[in-house]
Specification:
The chain is α/β, with parallel strands linked by helices and 940 residues long. Helices cover 48% and strands 11% of the residues. It is built from 34 helices and 24 strands. An 8-stranded mixed sheet has the order 4-3-5-2-6-7-1-8, with helices on both faces. A 7-stranded mixed sheet has the order 10-9-17-14-11-13-12, with helices on both faces. A 5-stranded antiparallel sheet has the order 21-20-19-18-22, covered by helices on one side. Helix 16 crosses helix 17.
């Protein structure tokens, strides 16, 4: 029971905050203390930053801002990072306040945009600020949900743009996940926005218990109480007042000892086994296998079901892994739903997918998807169709779906809490390498476990894997380190919009207020200490390199430049040969006799299918070899060009699966090739690199200088060379650190100056004004904005047909997931190739200009979506496009929607011209079929 003094404090607070009292009456539960503090601060006229765990109810503070705006006859914008969340929040607010008081603005929808409450994506608000929209009149509150998105590499700058450019009269409510540098972020908000109250909450609303599944048995991760299972007061705060920085005991010592023993025994078994012979008959009979410790996915679900731990989100860091898991559960006969639940699932699915074209259902995998849903099982990842994801989210929220196999993107999107979260592995592919997940990512993923008001407790389950270290997992589960790092940098579009509005000097000053600059100014001290240590180490290396015959550093630098020139030359020749080989394959026709240069199929072969459909890997011809095998070749088999050395007529009824027909045709092929000599591959590349090196006069000159250098005859030459390599490596590192120091001093302002220099050189800016070309650039919001604007100015898109324009614009939006994979995608013929060549030339010119101005904003164009866009705009069916491109349906839809966004921007920027008509025709032509399906779940 509260003490009299506590009761009086509550009474005084209620007297001072009548709006909070009225707001509390709207809910049938008591508000948490951190929610009341934040709401009271907002009513007092302060701006608020709330940092709290997933599922703690921080969005309620945003809803209080909505309540205040309506009560005071003012306007409130509620912004979210993705359209899906905007749609969800719009539905929530409409159910509470009515459709007449709530509007929605996303890239696809505009509903009641002049309502007092408008829900929108953050990009929409940014664009409104730059355009000076009249909708901003009367705006008093802006709620920025998921404000920690400002750390996102590709989109984070938008949040800072909004926070910097919003009028001072607008109060901002910033809602963030738990971050360990919340005070730093709050200090920045105080600098930019004025008086800001920071409200931190570490306590989870539902206790979270940590487990490890070994085989089919669930073990507690901790021997005692898990740190996330505490329901009392949060940990004792640090001196700064941030619970995230509180001192805690070494929780690794509290790991369940049984798990430690299992890990020790498991590692010993596999370590001992690695020393034994690999032949199966030599292995011990009772040798434990991997599956003894790592459970099958279907077994995991069954165990969770038996333990009343469903519904669950099962995180697998792979789209294919999610699909495979769903199929595995189907094949195992797993069924988690009751008859009445299956009936409701089928009804919802039929209702929500009724507008999907029937002819597309098969290629979309609808039938397997529907069967899995009826059993209470689903997958959820970015490669799925948005309509399918919407169904999964709705059914899971209603408790009809019991387990969802999902990628980590689910942890950042729709509110889908579960009783249990399963992590299959603690590492993931980040696009470049397999890396361990961070404590922040672990917290974000497991934060979905435990539904407030439904579950008494939540559960996080990590699956046992070979080499599993329970102490490391305990460290992940107990660490509260999730720093917020800015990804802000000025873009070309941002620069022209700011100069149009406030002039160059004022724009520069405004950008100096960014969170990125705020953090950079605090990081220089540590970097300076690192430079000092490196400089001392370099002096020590110089002493070890000293040679009595001459300047060994000069000699070592010469060796290094020779190696680099040889490597770059070989790489360039390899690329040239690949392009030459691909062009030669594209000329092949059915019935051509070729000699395969390399691979296990090397030798004479007969072309059955040129294989021009594969976009990502280049042509993949299907051939019949002399040994009667039908092979599907790839570019690896063609290190050198190939040409037809004859032709055979292939019978119309030839069936490559018929052994007799293969034998007969192979014999005809052998008879024809007997006169052509041996059937081995020609050695066309042997010695080519050596010849090319000999033909390089600059390389020969450097080699002569190397041999003539005094240090070339040193008896300790190789020892000196090893020290020199260390010197060069550390020198490169030291120069990188020095550049960081230079970049972090007034970094944003200097970047803005360089961006403006680029725009001055191209005549997009004229002092404090924008030119006509600059006005066009201001309307284009894409990563390759400057390339698009230059293409408009130089007329690259003029006179193109609808499919041709779609193909060209696709090169400006698409970005392949496998960035390091060299590809030669299929391209349409004719004017498209000429336009793409001009676009490539423009990109190269702009990249050269960027190098001169020391900026780097323009990524390379990616032609991987040109052919699918061309085919779709030409009227091809979804099945045809997906078959020819190897794209997942959800990826295809997402890229087409981004293509529509850019095409509409181009139409807007083109003015009253034929190009505007063509661009609008592109939008009309590609917004069809599955693209036109109005789904509530859309990508940003």
């Amino acid at each position: 029971m509260s003490t009299p003094s506590e009761k009086y404090a509550v009474f005084r607070s209620d007297q001072e905050h009548p709006a909070v009292v009225e707001f509390r009456r709207l809910y049938d539960f008591e508000l948490d203390e951190f929610q009341l503090r934040a709401c009271a601060a907002l009513e007092d006229g302060h701006q608020v930053l709330v940092a709290a765990p997933t599922g703690s109810g921080k969005t309620l503070v945003g809803e209080f801002a909505v309540h205040l705006a309506l009560q005071r006859g003012q306007k409130c914008f509620y912004t979210t990072p993705i359209k899906a969340l905007s749609n969800q929040k719009y539905a929530d607010l409409v159910s509470r306040y009515g459709a007449d008081k709530v509007g929605l603005l996303t890239g696809d929808n505009s509903i009641n945009s002049e309502a007092p409450i408008v829900v929108m994506t953050t990009e929409v608000l940014r664009n409104m600020l730059y355009a000076g929209s009249n909708t901003l009149l009367g705006l008093s509150y802006v709620v920025m949900d998921e404000v920690h998105y400002l750390a996102d590499r590709s989109r984070g700058a938008v949040w800072e743009e909004v926070l910097i450019h919003l009028p001072d009269s607008v109060s901002v409510v910033s809602l963030s996940a738990t971050v360990s540098n919340a005070e730093e972020f709050g200090d920045w908000l105080e600098t930019v926005r004025g008086n800001t109250v920071v409200v931190l909450e570490e306590k989870r609303p539902v206790p979270l218990f940590q487990h490890v599944m070994v085989g089919k048995r669930l073990h507690d991760l901790f021997a005692g109480e898990a740190p996330t299972a505490r329901v009392g007061a949060p940990a004792k705060p640090s001196k700064s007042g941030n619970p995230a920085k509180a001192s805690q005991p070494d929780l690794k010592d509290l790991v369940n000892p049984q798990l430690v023993r299992i890990a020790r025994d498991d590692n010993r078994v596999f370590r001992d086994d690695s020393r034994k012979p690999r032949r199966r008959r030599d292995l011990p009979k009772n040798r434990p296998s991997r599956t003894h410790f790592t459970p099958y996915r279907s077994d995991v679900v069954e165990e969770l079901d038996a333990g009343a731990l469903l519904p669950a989100i099962y995180f697998i860091f792979s789209r294919k892994g999610c699909e495979d898991a769903m199929v595995q559960c189907l094949r195992s006969g797993l069924r988690l739903t009751k008859p009445h639940e299956r009936d409701e699932i089928k009804r919802v699915l039929a209702e929500r997918t009724a507008d999907l074209p029937d002819e597309d259902l098969g290629v979309l995998g609808y039938h397997d998807f529907a069967e899995a849903l009826s059993r209470g099982i689903a997958a959820h990842h970015a490669g799925m169709l948005a309509a399918f994801k919407e169904v999964v989210e709705e059914l899971f929220a209603r408790g009809l779906i019991k387990v969802v196999f999902a990628t980590e993107t689910l942890a950042l999107g729709i509110n889908m809490p579960a009783r249990t979260v399963v992590l299959e592995k603690l590492s993931k592919w980040n696009g470049e390498a397999h890396v361990d997940i961070t404590p922040g990512e672990y917290t974000q993923l497991t934060g979905r476990a435990g539904r407030r008001g439904i579950d008494v407790e939540g559960h996080a389950v990590v699956l046992w894997q070979p080499g599993f270290d329970p102490r490391a997992v305990a460290g992940l589960a107990s660490t509260r380190t999730y720093p917020l790092r800015s990804s802000f940098s000025p873009s070309y579009n941002m620069a022209v919009n700011l100069v149009r509005q406030v002039g160059r000097t004022r724009a520069r000053d405004m950008l100096e207020l960014s969170f990125a600059q705020f953090q950079s100014d605090q990081a220089v001290v540590g970097l300076a200490r690192q430079v000092h240590r490196n400089t001392e180490a370099l002096e020590g290396y110089k002493e070890s390199i000293d040679c009595h015959l001459g300047d060994f550093l000069e000699y070592a630098d010469l060796r290094r430049r020779i190696s680099e020139r040889e490597a770059s030359g070989s790489k360039r020749r390899k690329l040239d040969r690949r392009i030459e080989a691909q062009e030669s394959i594209e000329k092949l026709r059915i019935g051509d006799i070729i000699r395969i240069p390399a691979g296990r199929s090397a030798g004479f072969a007969l072309v059955l299918d040129p294989g021009m459909r594969s976009e990502r890997e280049g042509p993949r011809p299907t051939v019949l070899t002399l040994d009667r095998q039908v092979r599907k070749l790839s570019m690896i088999d063609f290190p050198t060009p190939v040409e037809a050395i004859g032709n055979l007529r292939i019978p119309k009824k030839f069936n490559p699966r018929n052994p007799q027909q293969r034998r007969e045709l192979a014999q005809v092929l052998r008879n024809r090739t007997d006169m052509l000599g041996e059937d081995g591959p020609p050695s066309r590349t042997r010695g080519r690199d050596a010849v090319s090196h000999a033909d390089d006069p600059e390389l020969q000159e450097m080699r002569a200088q190397l041999r003539a250098h005094p240090c070339h005859g040193c008896s300790d030459r190789e020892d000196h060379a090893r020290w020199a390599e260390r010197y060069f490596r550390l020198d490169r590192e030291n120069r990188d650190v020095q550049r960081k120091i230079e970049q972090r001093t007034n970094t944003i302002a200097r970047q803005f100056d360089r961006v403006c220099q680029v725009l001055d050189a191209l005549h997009y800016l004229d002092g404090d004004k924008t030119t006509e070309a600059g006005d066009r650039l201001a309307r284009i919001y894409t990563e390759l904005d400057l390339v698009a604007a230059e293409c408009l100015r130089q007329g690259v898109f003029d006179n193109l047909t609808v499919p041709e324009l779609a193909a060209c614009l696709a090169a400006l939006v698409y970005e392949s997931r496998a960035k390091d994979e060299p590809t030669s995608p299929r391209l349409p013929r004719g004017d498209v190739r000429q336009a793409l060549e001009r676009m490539g030339s423009i990109w190269r010119d702009l990249s050269a200009l960027e190098r001169d101005m020391r900026v780097d904003f323009l990524r390379s164009m990616d032609l991987g979506f040109c052919w699918p866009a061309f085919r779709w705009a030409s009227g091809a069916s979804l099945a045809e496009v997906l078959y020819e491109s190897d794209l997942a349906a959800g990826d295809f839809v997402r890229w087409v929607k981004q293509l529509i966004d850019l095409t509409e921007q181009v139409a807007d920027a083109a003015g009253d011209s034929e190009l505007r008509s063509t661009a609008r025709a592109v939008v009309d032509q590609i917004r069809r079929g599955v693209i036109s399906y109005a789904s509530m779940v859309d990508e940003p």
